[in-house]
């Protein structure tokens, strides 16, 4: 196998084909990484979550990193790393259309709500889901190709 850099359009294709990614955020010098469901349009990566540590940390520090892998047949693989910024899409004027767009992209796939909706709820009133996007600042990718 030979490892090569991927051009941006190939990186974007890997992102668009992915349904799951690993999202890394940081607060007070401490990292936190979690799996998330994603949908990609243009240069934005959409997702959602229940309130919790990930959202609190991204609100405090919107600089995030996202990583996606694609393991192909014959030992080949592709990996993309995105550096970007967290942008919350609240359910109010100014964000409503983009929030609905995020929902339509995410809901186009089976089990789209996993893992974002699988947090244990201790209250009688379950918290509302939050939609957000990651705007892509930089993106790099590599892939292994047979010799």
In the CATH hierarchy, the third-tier topology is known as Pnp Oxidase, Chain A
Shape: globular
- Biggest sheet architecture: 8 strands, antiparallel
Q: Report the mean per-residue pLDDT as an integer.
A: 85
Per DSSP E runs of 2 or more residues, the count of β-strands stands at 8
Uncertain spans, ≥5 residues at pLDDT below 50? 118-123
Overall SS class: alpha+beta
What is the CATH architecture descriptor? Roll
CATH class call = Mainly Beta
Tell me the count of domains: 1
H/I helix tally: 3
Task: Provide the β-strand percentage band.
Answer: over 45%
Portion in helices: 10-25%
How would you portray this structure in words?
This protein is α+β, with helices and mostly antiparallel strands and 147 residues long. It has a single domain (2-145), classed as Pnp Oxidase, Chain A (Roll), CATH 2.30.110. Helix content is 20%, strand content 46%. It has three helices and eight strands. It has helices at residues 8-17, 53-60, 96-106; strands at 2-5, 20-27, 30-37, 39-41, 44-49, 63-71, 77-89, 130-145. Strands 1, 2, 3, 4, 5, 6, 7 and 8 form an eight-stranded antiparallel β-sheet that branches. The longest helix is centred in the last third of the chain and has 11 residues, at 96-106. The N and C termini lie close together (5 Å).
